[in-house]
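Before relying on records like the one below, remember that each one covers exactly one chain. Contacts with other chains, cofactors or solvent are not represented anywhere in the record.
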Amino acid sequence: MADLSRITVDAKVMGGKACIRGLRFPVSRLLNLLASGQSEAEVLKNHPDLEPEDIRAAMAYAAALAEDRIIVLKSA
């Protein structure tokens, strides 16, 4: 299981967006890099402040958000 304590939210950092370890590096940016086709190795090479565990934590965080239940309301 990924260490979700690596994901931090602070109103004073990046406007309160979820970030990696308090860095000015939003989780969304990391996920977008991976989604655009960059490998984990490329991301880590291009962003030396990041660690492999940060990538796992970001993906686990995104997976947890995707687990939210959607309730469909029918109009009358």
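The two ends are 44 Å apart (CA to CA).
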